[in-house]
């Protein structure tokens, strides 16, 4: 299985490659990708340099163009497809059909991966995208049970990629409305959940910190309590007089224990989430998964989950805890 790792900037790209990533995924410094945070992503020159760095080491670079343009701004996404082809990207990762259609017609030699934002969870959806746009891979949303993944691997016309580790989204990717409900800025159109311009941190008199998103109180933290980036789905709210994580507790998906089963199902690639995370995260998580994959490849029958792998990944997880998420769901 291919190990696909995040690259939020050039140092992270280099760190992922050096730690053993088979491929990295990156985005331009604009709203064409779903991690359009200030200070993240690549200029034209940086992306070109990153592609050179990866290709010199026989690794691949995929360009995330996974947001949804409106008709007025479609030309901007089309220009990004043109740059991906010009710079020598190994594939684009796209969700919106107009973007896929343009790439299919204009750059037929540029590989097209269906983004997780495309929300393809059924064999008919995958067949449609393959027949209409010639996709060569699809990234599955993080809402499927392991049994559903196995059945899709049996019936998909294209190789499948799944998320192996990282932040877990409670909504079917490509359909979340929570951030846009509070801010008016859609993650799917503007490229970021909880845009930084709407975030406000405040010090309270009792020493706690509060964080608001467009004036809506998302959470309060004790002085020594780790504070994550504020998103509506992972906030704490007063429900019937009780304050708790009403939608989702901060945690990270970790499918490492399912690696043998995913491999036997025929999953082509494992993706690590985290283009918004730093070099230390990218390097450590990539190195851990590289070791696990290499050991499985050398001796599948002897492969066992190692305690040091679990500790390493838990240290980089949201809330310092991990979950199998929907993978362990018994009903499906």
Descriptive key words:
332 residues, single chain, eight-stranded parallel barrel, alpha/beta, TIM Barrel, globular, three-stranded antiparallel β-sheet, 2 domains
Number of strands: 15
Give the averaged pLDDT, no decimals.
Answer: 93
Strand order, largest beta sheet: 1-2-3-4-5-6-7-14
Strand content: 15-25%
End-to-end distance, in Å? 25 Å
CATH superfamily of the largest domain: Aldolase class I
Structural class: alpha/beta
- Please give the CATH class of the largest domain: Alpha Beta
**Which series of helices and strands comes N to C?**
EHEHEHEHEHEHEHHEEEEEEHEHHE
Q: How many separate helices?
A: 11
Proportion of residues in helical segments = 25-40%
**CATH fold label of the largest domain:** TIM Barrel
Radius of gyration: 20 Å
Gross CATH architecture of the largest domain: Alpha-Beta Barrel
Largest sheet: 8 strands, parallel, barrel
- Poorly predicted tracts of residues: none
What this model shows, in words?
The structure is a single chain. With 332 residues, the chain is an alpha/beta fold. Helices cover 34% and strands 19% of the residues. It has helices at 10-19, 44-55, 74-87, 97-106, 123-133, 146-155, 178-183, 187-190, 259-265, 279-298, 307-315, and strands at residues 2-6, 23-26, 60-65, 91-94, 112-114, 137-139, 160-167, 199-203, 209-213, 216-221, 237-239, 242-244, 252-254, 269-272, 322-323. Helix 1 (10-19) runs parallel beside helix 2, helix 1 (10-19) packs parallel to helix 10 (279-298) and helix 3 (74-87) packs across helix 4 (97-106).
């Amino acid at each position: 299985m291919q190990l696909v790792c995040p690259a939020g900037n050039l140092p992270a790209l280099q760190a992922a490659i050096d730690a053993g990533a088979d491929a990295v995924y990156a985005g331009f410094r604009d709203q064409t990708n779903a991690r359009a945070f200030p200070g993240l992503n690549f200029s034209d020159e940086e992306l070109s340099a990153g592609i050179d760095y990866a290709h010199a080491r026989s690794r691949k670079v995929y360009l995330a163009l996974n947001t949804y343009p409106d008709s007025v701004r479609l030309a901007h996404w089309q220009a990004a497809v043109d740059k991906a082809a010009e710079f020598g990207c190994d594939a684009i990762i796209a969700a919106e059909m107009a973007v896929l259609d343009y790439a299919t017609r204009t750059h037929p030699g540029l590989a097209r991966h269906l983004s997780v934002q495309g929300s393809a969870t059924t064999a008919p959806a995958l067949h449609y995208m393959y027949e209409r746009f010639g996709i060569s891979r699809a990234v599955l949303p993080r809402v499927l049970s392991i049994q559903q993944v196995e059945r899709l691997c049996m019936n998909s016309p294209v190789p499948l990629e799944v998320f192996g580790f990282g932040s877990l989204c409670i909504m079917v990717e490509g359909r979340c409305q929570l951030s846009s409900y509070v801010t008016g800025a859609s993650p799917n159109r503007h490229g970021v959940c909880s845009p930084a311009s709407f975030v406000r941190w405040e010090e309270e008199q009792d020493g706690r910190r509060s964080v608001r998103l467009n004036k809506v109180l998302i959470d309060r933290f004790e002085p020594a309590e780790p504070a994550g980036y504020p998103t509506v789905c992972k906030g704490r709210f007063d429900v019937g007089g009780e304050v708790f994580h009403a939608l989702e507790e901060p945690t990270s998906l970790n499918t490492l224990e399912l690696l043998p089963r995913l491999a036997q199902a025929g999953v082509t690639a494992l993706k690590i989430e985290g283009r918004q995370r730093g070099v230390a995260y990218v390097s450590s998580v990539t190195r851990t998964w590289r070791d696990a994959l290499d050991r499985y490849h050398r001796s599948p029958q002897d492969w066992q989950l190692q305690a040091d792998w679990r500790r390493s990944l838990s240290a980089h997880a949201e809330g310092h805890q991990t979950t199998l998420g929907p993978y362990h769901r018994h009903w499906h």
